[in-house]
Amino acid sequence: MNPENLRVNGKRLQQTLEDMAKIGATPAGGVQRLTLTDEDKAARDLFVQWLKELNLEITIDEMGNIFGKRAGKNNALTPVLSGSHIDSQPKGGRFDGTLGVMTVLEVLRTLDENDIRTERPLVIVDWTNEEGSRFAPAMVSSGVWAGALDRDWAYDRTDINGIRFEDELIRIGYKGAAPAKKWPLHTYYELHIEQGPMLEREHKIIGAPKGILCLHWYDVYLEGEANQVGPTPMEGRHDALCAAAEMILKVNALPERMGGNMVATVGEIQNYPNSRNIIPDKVHFTVDIRSWDDDLAINAWNLLRKDFESLAQARGCPIRIEETWRVEHSPFDKNLVQRVLDNADMLGYPSLYMISGAGHDASYMNQIAPAAMIFVPSIGGRSHVEVENTEWKDCEAGANVLLHSMLQSADEK
Ligand code: HGY
Ligand code: MN
Ligand code: MN
User: Fold this and answer.
1) Half-sphere exposure (Cβ direction) of 122: Cα atoms closer than 13 Å
2) Domain 214-327 adopts which CATH fold?
Protein backbone atom coordinates (compact mmCIF):
# COMPACT_ATOMS: atom_id res chain seq x y z
CA MET A 1 0.00 0.00 0.00
CA ASN A 2 1.22 3.51 -0.71
CA PRO A 3 2.22 4.70 2.79
CA GLU A 4 0.43 8.00 2.12
CA ASN A 5 -2.86 6.07 2.12
CA LEU A 6 -2.17 4.51 5.49
CA ARG A 7 -4.74 5.36 8.18
CA VAL A 8 -5.30 4.26 11.78
CA ASN A 9 -8.36 2.35 12.90
CA GLY A 10 -10.47 4.99 14.66
CA LYS A 11 -12.94 2.49 16.08
CA ARG A 12 -10.16 0.44 17.66
CA LEU A 13 -8.60 3.60 19.09
CA GLN A 14 -11.96 4.58 20.59
CA GLN A 15 -12.37 1.12 22.13
CA THR A 16 -8.87 1.28 23.63
CA LEU A 17 -9.58 4.69 25.17
CA GLU A 18 -12.93 3.49 26.52
CA ASP A 19 -11.30 0.40 28.04
CA MET A 20 -8.62 2.53 29.71
CA ALA A 21 -11.21 5.06 30.93
CA LYS A 22 -12.94 2.30 32.91
CA ILE A 23 -9.93 2.28 35.27
CA GLY A 24 -10.47 4.92 37.93
CA ALA A 25 -13.76 5.98 36.28
CA THR A 26 -15.66 8.61 38.28
CA PRO A 27 -19.48 8.87 38.42
CA ALA A 28 -19.48 12.13 36.43
CA GLY A 29 -17.61 10.58 33.49
CA GLY A 30 -14.03 11.46 34.33
CA VAL A 31 -11.17 9.45 35.79
CA GLN A 32 -9.22 9.54 39.01
CA ARG A 33 -5.88 7.75 38.55
CA LEU A 34 -3.52 9.67 40.81
CA THR A 35 0.05 8.65 40.22
CA LEU A 36 1.27 5.47 41.96
CA THR A 37 -2.16 4.65 43.38
CA ASP A 38 -3.89 1.30 42.85
CA GLU A 39 -5.78 2.84 39.92
CA ASP A 40 -2.49 3.88 38.30
CA LYS A 41 -1.19 0.34 38.84
CA ALA A 42 -4.25 -1.18 37.20
CA ALA A 43 -3.87 1.15 34.21
CA ARG A 44 -0.19 0.26 33.94
CA ASP A 45 -0.93 -3.45 34.09
CA LEU A 46 -3.44 -3.10 31.22
CA PHE A 47 -0.99 -0.99 29.21
CA VAL A 48 1.82 -3.57 29.69
CA GLN A 49 -0.55 -6.34 28.59
CA TRP A 50 -1.26 -4.40 25.37
CA LEU A 51 2.47 -3.94 24.81
CA LYS A 52 3.00 -7.70 25.22
CA GLU A 53 0.29 -8.40 22.61
CA LEU A 54 2.43 -6.41 20.16
CA ASN A 55 5.58 -8.37 21.10
CA LEU A 56 7.37 -5.17 21.99
CA GLU A 57 10.59 -5.18 24.01
CA ILE A 58 9.32 -3.84 27.35
CA THR A 59 11.52 -1.87 29.77
CA ILE A 60 10.43 -0.43 33.12
CA ASP A 61 12.96 1.94 34.64
CA GLU A 62 13.67 3.01 38.20
CA MET A 63 11.17 5.87 37.95
CA GLY A 64 8.47 3.51 36.72
CA ASN A 65 8.60 4.86 33.17
CA ILE A 66 7.30 2.13 30.85
CA PHE A 67 8.89 1.80 27.38
CA GLY A 68 7.84 -0.55 24.55
CA LYS A 69 10.31 -0.89 21.66
CA ARG A 70 9.33 -1.99 18.12
CA ALA A 71 12.39 -3.10 16.16
CA GLY A 72 13.29 -1.32 12.95
CA LYS A 73 15.20 -2.64 9.92
CA ASN A 74 18.32 -1.05 11.38
CA ASN A 75 18.35 -1.13 15.19
CA ALA A 76 21.70 0.56 15.34
CA LEU A 77 19.87 3.77 14.42
CA THR A 78 18.47 5.99 17.17
CA PRO A 79 14.73 5.51 17.75
CA VAL A 80 11.68 7.69 17.32
CA LEU A 81 10.07 7.99 20.76
CA SER A 82 6.45 8.95 21.34
CA GLY A 83 4.12 8.86 24.32
CA SER A 84 2.68 10.80 27.24
CA HIS A 85 1.17 9.81 30.61
CA ILE A 86 -1.73 7.73 31.99
CA ASP A 87 -1.82 9.22 35.48
CA SER A 88 -4.56 11.80 36.02
CA GLN A 89 -5.63 14.74 38.13
CA PRO A 90 -8.06 14.14 41.00
CA LYS A 91 -11.47 14.05 39.26
CA GLY A 92 -9.63 14.52 35.96
CA GLY A 93 -10.45 13.80 32.36
CA ARG A 94 -10.37 10.63 30.23
CA PHE A 95 -8.17 12.14 27.50
CA ASP A 96 -5.40 14.17 29.23
CA GLY A 97 -2.21 12.14 28.72
CA THR A 98 -3.97 8.86 28.01
CA LEU A 99 -4.79 9.93 24.46
CA GLY A 100 -1.11 10.57 23.80
CA VAL A 101 -0.19 7.04 24.84
CA MET A 102 -3.11 5.21 23.22
CA THR A 103 -2.61 6.91 19.85
CA VAL A 104 0.96 5.59 19.76
CA LEU A 105 -0.39 2.12 20.56
CA GLU A 106 -2.81 2.53 17.63
CA VAL A 107 0.05 3.61 15.35
CA LEU A 108 2.03 0.46 16.27
CA ARG A 109 -1.04 -1.76 15.77
CA THR A 110 -1.62 -0.15 12.35
CA LEU A 111 1.99 -0.77 11.28
CA ASP A 112 1.76 -4.41 12.40
CA GLU A 113 -1.43 -5.16 10.51
CA ASN A 114 -0.03 -3.50 7.38
CA ASP A 115 3.24 -5.35 7.77
CA ILE A 116 5.29 -2.15 7.71
CA ARG A 117 8.82 -2.15 9.13
CA THR A 118 10.40 1.29 9.61
CA GLU A 119 14.11 1.97 9.16
CA ARG A 120 14.50 3.14 12.74
CA PRO A 121 13.09 1.50 15.86
CA LEU A 122 9.93 3.04 17.33
CA VAL A 123 9.45 3.38 21.09
CA ILE A 124 6.21 4.06 22.99
CA VAL A 125 6.42 5.49 26.52
CA ASP A 126 4.20 6.08 29.54
CA TRP A 127 5.93 8.66 31.78
CA THR A 128 5.32 8.32 35.53
CA ASN A 129 3.67 11.23 37.37
CA GLU A 130 3.33 13.79 34.63
CA GLU A 131 0.57 15.56 36.58
CA GLY A 132 2.48 16.46 39.72
CA SER A 133 -0.79 16.65 41.66
CA ARG A 134 -0.19 13.96 44.29
CA PHE A 135 3.61 14.32 44.26
CA ALA A 136 5.03 17.64 43.10
CA PRO A 137 6.54 18.52 40.71
CA ALA A 138 4.93 17.64 37.40
CA MET A 139 6.82 15.78 34.65
CA VAL A 140 9.15 14.54 37.35
CA SER A 141 9.98 11.18 35.74
CA SER A 142 10.68 12.45 32.24
CA GLY A 143 12.73 15.13 34.01
CA VAL A 144 14.82 12.51 35.84
CA TRP A 145 15.18 10.46 32.64
CA ALA A 146 16.34 13.54 30.71
CA GLY A 147 18.90 14.28 33.42
CA ALA A 148 17.23 17.54 34.50
CA LEU A 149 16.01 16.32 37.90
CA ASP A 150 17.73 14.19 40.54
CA ARG A 151 16.31 10.69 41.02
CA ASP A 152 16.81 10.55 44.81
CA TRP A 153 15.26 14.01 45.24
CA ALA A 154 12.25 12.71 43.32
CA TYR A 155 12.20 9.53 45.42
CA ASP A 156 11.92 11.59 48.61
CA ARG A 157 8.97 13.71 47.43
CA THR A 158 5.98 13.12 49.68
CA ASP A 159 2.24 13.42 49.20
CA ILE A 160 -0.14 15.24 51.55
CA ASN A 161 -0.08 12.23 53.91
CA GLY A 162 3.71 12.14 54.07
CA ILE A 163 3.98 9.02 51.88
CA ARG A 164 7.20 8.85 49.80
CA PHE A 165 7.26 8.59 46.01
CA GLU A 166 9.75 5.70 45.99
CA ASP A 167 7.78 3.70 48.57
CA GLU A 168 4.65 3.96 46.43
CA LEU A 169 6.60 2.98 43.31
CA ILE A 170 7.76 -0.16 45.15
CA ARG A 171 4.30 -0.83 46.59
CA ILE A 172 2.63 -0.94 43.16
CA GLY A 173 5.48 -3.03 41.74
CA TYR A 174 6.73 -0.50 39.18
CA LYS A 175 10.14 0.44 40.48
CA GLY A 176 12.02 -1.10 37.56
CA ALA A 177 15.64 -2.16 37.38
CA ALA A 178 16.63 -0.15 34.33
CA PRO A 179 18.36 3.16 35.10
CA ALA A 180 16.13 6.20 34.48
CA LYS A 181 18.80 7.65 32.26
CA LYS A 182 18.33 9.06 28.77
CA TRP A 183 19.57 7.24 25.71
CA PRO A 184 20.06 8.87 22.29
CA LEU A 185 16.83 9.76 20.49
CA HIS A 186 16.22 10.65 16.85
CA THR A 187 12.96 12.53 17.53
CA TYR A 188 10.17 12.78 20.08
CA TYR A 189 6.46 13.32 19.32
CA GLU A 190 3.69 13.80 21.86
CA LEU A 191 0.03 13.94 20.94
CA HIS A 192 -2.19 15.63 23.53
CA ILE A 193 -5.55 17.31 23.89
CA GLU A 194 -5.17 21.09 23.71
CA GLN A 195 -6.77 21.67 27.13
CA GLY A 196 -7.78 25.15 25.98
CA PRO A 197 -10.29 26.93 23.68
CA MET A 198 -8.20 27.91 20.64
CA LEU A 199 -8.74 24.99 18.21
CA GLU A 200 -12.49 24.94 18.81
CA ARG A 201 -12.72 28.73 18.52
CA GLU A 202 -10.73 28.73 15.25
CA HIS A 203 -12.58 25.65 13.89
CA LYS A 204 -9.32 23.70 13.51
CA ILE A 205 -8.69 20.00 14.12
CA ILE A 206 -4.90 19.83 14.51
CA GLY A 207 -2.78 22.14 16.66
CA ALA A 208 0.98 22.42 16.19
CA PRO A 209 2.43 24.18 19.24
CA LYS A 210 5.61 26.17 18.63
CA GLY A 211 6.50 25.13 22.18
CA ILE A 212 5.48 25.10 25.84
CA LEU A 213 5.51 27.93 28.42
CA CYS A 214 7.91 27.82 31.35
CA LEU A 215 6.37 26.43 34.52
CA HIS A 216 7.50 27.75 37.92
CA TRP A 217 6.08 26.17 41.11
CA TYR A 218 6.42 27.50 44.66
CA ASP A 219 5.16 26.36 48.08
CA VAL A 220 4.30 28.90 50.81
CA TYR A 221 3.93 28.02 54.51
CA LEU A 222 2.50 30.48 57.08
CA GLU A 223 2.54 30.24 60.88
CA GLY A 224 -0.14 32.08 62.85
CA GLU A 225 -1.49 31.76 66.40
CA ALA A 226 -4.47 29.55 67.05
CA ASN A 227 -7.05 30.64 69.58
CA GLN A 228 -10.73 30.47 70.44
CA VAL A 229 -12.58 32.70 67.91
CA GLY A 230 -15.03 34.06 70.49
CA PRO A 231 -13.04 35.61 73.32
CA THR A 232 -9.98 36.61 71.23
CA PRO A 233 -10.21 40.29 70.22
CA MET A 234 -9.69 41.07 66.49
CA GLU A 235 -6.85 43.39 67.50
CA GLY A 236 -3.55 41.51 67.77
CA ARG A 237 -4.64 38.29 66.08
CA HIS A 238 -2.11 36.35 63.98
CA ASP A 239 -4.53 34.77 61.56
CA ALA A 240 -2.55 32.69 59.03
CA LEU A 241 -5.57 32.31 56.72
CA CYS A 242 -6.08 36.09 56.44
CA ALA A 243 -2.40 36.50 55.61
CA ALA A 244 -2.77 33.81 52.93
CA ALA A 245 -5.90 35.44 51.54
CA GLU A 246 -4.10 38.75 50.97
CA MET A 247 -1.21 36.90 49.28
CA ILE A 248 -3.50 34.85 47.03
CA LEU A 249 -5.10 38.00 45.64
CA LYS A 250 -1.59 39.34 44.90
CA VAL A 251 -0.93 36.19 42.82
CA ASN A 252 -4.13 36.76 40.86
CA ALA A 253 -3.17 40.41 40.15
CA LEU A 254 0.39 39.57 39.10
CA PRO A 255 -0.01 38.96 35.31
CA GLU A 256 -1.69 42.34 34.77
CA ARG A 257 0.91 44.03 36.96
CA MET A 258 3.65 42.45 34.77
CA GLY A 259 1.99 43.58 31.54
CA GLY A 260 0.43 40.26 30.47
CA ASN A 261 2.04 37.29 28.66
CA MET A 262 1.73 35.32 31.92
CA VAL A 263 -0.67 33.28 34.03
CA ALA A 264 -0.42 32.92 37.81
CA THR A 265 -2.57 30.67 39.97
CA VAL A 266 -3.00 29.38 43.51
CA GLY A 267 -4.54 25.94 43.02
CA GLU A 268 -3.94 24.15 46.28
CA ILE A 269 -4.35 25.24 49.91
CA GLN A 270 -4.38 23.51 53.28
CA ASN A 271 -5.63 25.36 56.36
CA TYR A 272 -5.08 24.07 59.91
CA PRO A 273 -6.65 23.23 62.21
CA ASN A 274 -9.52 24.10 59.84
CA SER A 275 -12.16 24.30 62.52
CA ARG A 276 -14.78 27.03 62.29
CA ASN A 277 -14.20 28.16 65.84
CA ILE A 278 -10.39 28.21 65.91
CA ILE A 279 -8.26 31.02 64.46
CA PRO A 280 -6.10 29.29 61.80
CA ASP A 281 -2.45 28.96 62.73
CA LYS A 282 -0.98 27.01 59.80
CA VAL A 283 -1.58 27.50 56.09
CA HIS A 284 0.17 25.99 53.07
CA PHE A 285 -0.61 27.12 49.53
CA THR A 286 0.95 26.65 46.10
CA VAL A 287 1.86 29.19 43.42
CA ASP A 288 2.03 28.32 39.68
CA ILE A 289 3.49 30.97 37.33
CA ARG A 290 3.80 30.36 33.57
CA SER A 291 5.07 32.47 30.69
CA TRP A 292 6.91 32.18 27.36
CA ASP A 293 9.35 34.66 28.90
CA ASP A 294 11.25 32.89 31.70
CA ASP A 295 12.88 36.11 32.94
CA LEU A 296 9.51 37.83 33.19
CA ALA A 297 8.23 34.92 35.28
CA ILE A 298 11.27 35.12 37.58
CA ASN A 299 11.00 38.91 37.95
CA ALA A 300 7.32 38.48 38.75
CA TRP A 301 8.14 35.95 41.46
CA ASN A 302 10.80 38.19 43.00
CA LEU A 303 8.23 41.01 43.31
CA LEU A 304 5.62 38.65 44.70
CA ARG A 305 8.02 37.19 47.23
CA LYS A 306 8.75 40.67 48.61
CA ASP A 307 5.02 41.33 48.92
CA PHE A 308 4.53 38.04 50.74
CA GLU A 309 7.30 38.84 53.20
CA SER A 310 5.89 42.27 54.07
CA LEU A 311 2.33 40.94 54.37
CA ALA A 312 3.54 38.14 56.65
CA GLN A 313 5.37 40.65 58.80
CA ALA A 314 2.36 42.98 59.05
CA ARG A 315 0.23 40.09 60.35
CA GLY A 316 2.92 38.64 62.60
CA CYS A 317 2.77 35.33 60.70
CA PRO A 318 6.24 33.95 59.97
CA ILE A 319 6.55 32.69 56.39
CA ARG A 320 8.59 29.90 54.82
CA ILE A 321 8.90 29.68 51.04
CA GLU A 322 10.09 26.74 48.92
CA GLU A 323 11.10 27.40 45.30
CA THR A 324 9.94 23.90 44.43
CA TRP A 325 10.46 23.56 40.67
CA ARG A 326 11.17 25.40 37.45
CA VAL A 327 11.21 24.08 33.91
CA GLU A 328 12.24 26.47 31.15
CA HIS A 329 9.94 27.37 28.28
CA SER A 330 10.59 24.93 25.44
CA PRO A 331 10.65 26.01 21.78
CA PHE A 332 10.12 22.88 19.64
CA ASP A 333 12.14 21.89 16.56
CA LYS A 334 10.88 24.11 13.74
CA ASN A 335 11.22 21.39 11.09
CA LEU A 336 9.22 18.88 13.12
CA VAL A 337 6.53 21.46 13.86
CA GLN A 338 6.35 22.13 10.12
CA ARG A 339 6.11 18.37 9.50
CA VAL A 340 3.05 18.22 11.78
CA LEU A 341 1.44 21.11 9.87
CA ASP A 342 2.31 19.56 6.47
CA ASN A 343 0.88 16.19 7.49
CA ALA A 344 -2.31 17.82 8.72
CA ASP A 345 -2.61 19.50 5.31
CA MET A 346 -1.80 16.26 3.43
CA LEU A 347 -4.53 14.49 5.42
CA GLY A 348 -7.01 17.30 4.92
CA TYR A 349 -7.25 18.50 8.53
CA PRO A 350 -7.36 22.28 9.17
CA SER A 351 -4.46 23.16 11.46
CA LEU A 352 -3.31 25.95 13.77
CA TYR A 353 0.19 27.05 14.74
CA MET A 354 -0.09 27.85 18.43
CA ILE A 355 1.51 27.62 21.88
CA SER A 356 1.03 25.25 24.80
CA GLY A 357 0.06 26.77 28.16
CA ALA A 358 -0.11 23.28 29.63
CA GLY A 359 3.06 21.52 30.69
CA HIS A 360 4.03 18.22 29.05
CA ASP A 361 6.85 15.69 29.19
CA ALA A 362 7.82 17.07 25.79
CA SER A 363 9.39 19.99 27.67
CA TYR A 364 12.13 17.69 28.92
CA MET A 365 12.37 15.63 25.73
CA ASN A 366 12.91 18.89 23.86
CA GLN A 367 16.06 19.43 25.92
CA ILE A 368 17.68 16.28 24.53
CA ALA A 369 16.25 15.72 21.03
CA PRO A 370 14.16 17.42 18.33
CA ALA A 371 10.58 17.33 19.62
CA ALA A 372 7.11 18.39 18.51
CA MET A 373 3.55 17.98 19.72
CA ILE A 374 0.22 17.38 18.02
CA PHE A 375 -2.88 18.89 19.62
CA VAL A 376 -6.51 17.96 19.09
CA PRO A 377 -9.46 20.08 20.29
CA SER A 378 -10.88 20.04 23.81
CA ILE A 379 -14.66 20.50 23.68
CA GLY A 380 -15.52 23.76 25.42
CA GLY A 381 -11.79 24.23 26.04
CA ARG A 382 -12.17 22.26 29.27
CA SER A 383 -9.56 19.96 30.88
CA HIS A 384 -8.49 18.74 34.32
CA VAL A 385 -12.23 18.27 34.89
CA GLU A 386 -14.54 15.27 34.56
CA VAL A 387 -16.37 16.82 31.60
CA GLU A 388 -13.09 16.90 29.60
CA ASN A 389 -14.00 15.63 26.15
CA THR A 390 -12.73 15.33 22.57
CA GLU A 391 -14.61 14.09 19.48
CA TRP A 392 -13.64 10.56 18.48
CA LYS A 393 -13.12 11.77 14.89
CA ASP A 394 -10.58 14.32 16.19
CA CYS A 395 -8.76 11.62 18.17
CA GLU A 396 -8.53 9.64 14.92
CA ALA A 397 -7.34 12.69 12.99
CA GLY A 398 -4.58 13.34 15.52
CA ALA A 399 -3.54 9.70 15.40
CA ASN A 400 -3.26 9.86 11.60
CA VAL A 401 -1.02 12.93 11.81
CA LEU A 402 1.07 11.15 14.44
CA LEU A 403 1.27 8.01 12.27
CA HIS A 404 2.65 9.89 9.28
CA SER A 405 4.95 12.12 11.33
CA MET A 406 6.47 9.10 13.10
CA LEU A 407 6.80 7.18 9.82
CA GLN A 408 8.58 10.06 8.10
CA SER A 409 10.98 10.52 11.03
CA ALA A 410 11.53 6.77 11.37
CA ASP A 411 12.53 6.44 7.72
CA GLU A 412 15.08 9.25 7.82
CA LYS A 413 18.54 7.82 7.28
O1 HGY B 1 0.54 21.39 34.97
C2 HGY B 1 0.33 21.02 33.81
O3 HGY B 1 0.14 21.82 32.90
C4 HGY B 1 0.28 19.54 33.51
O5 HGY B 1 -1.04 19.10 33.66
N6 HGY B 1 1.16 18.79 34.37
MN1 MN C 1 -1.23 15.93 30.28
MN1 MN D 1 -2.70 17.38 33.04
Assistant:
1) 32
2) Alpha-Beta Plaits (3.30.70)
